[in-house]
Amino acid sequence: QVQLVESGGGSVQAGNSLTLSCVTPRNIFGVNAMAWPRQAPGKQRELVALIGSIGTLHYADSVKGRFYISRDNAKSTVLLRMNSLQPEDTAVYYCSSGADMWTILSGKSQYWGQGTHVTVSS
Q: Exposure string (b/e) for 81-118, b if CB count within 10 Å is 16 or more?
């Protein structure tokens, strides 16, 4: 019944930007932490960015300074603005949610979207 819906993925050249969106049920969005994990072929899932219910932020070292996570409260949507994309950023990006930031950091998000593909060409 609960479903997070991602959009905004695509194929771009290195150096370009994309913004991913995740529409979230209001009862989850209002009290839960939200995050963007990604899965690249042959690699472990990596937590890219996290935002807590009160705005606490966390970024992976690999994207710090390039990616920015934010909440649009009016639209019950979490955004991931990705700048200066590199081929290493190629992955399926998921939207996920957990009761708190520690739930997400431990890899145990409770709600997931189906993912949106991001491909970055050199």
A: ebeebeeebbbbbbbbbbbebebbeeeebebebebbeb
pLDDT at 11 over 60: yes
DSSP string, 87-112: GGG-EEE--EEESSHHHHHTT--SEE
Residue 85 DSSP code = -
Kindly report the average pLDDT of the chain as a whole number. 94
Beta strand 67-72 with 10-13 is unpaired
| DSSP-derived 3-state class of residue 28 | helix
The distance of Cα 33 from the centroid of its chain, to the nearest Å, equals: 11
- How many residues appear in the chain? 122
Contact partners, residue 13, CB within 8 Å, separation at least 6: 120, 121
Q: Comparing C-alpha atoms, which of 44, 113, 51 is closest to residue 79?
A: 51
On whether the CB atoms of residues 96 and 3 are closer than 8 A, the answer is no
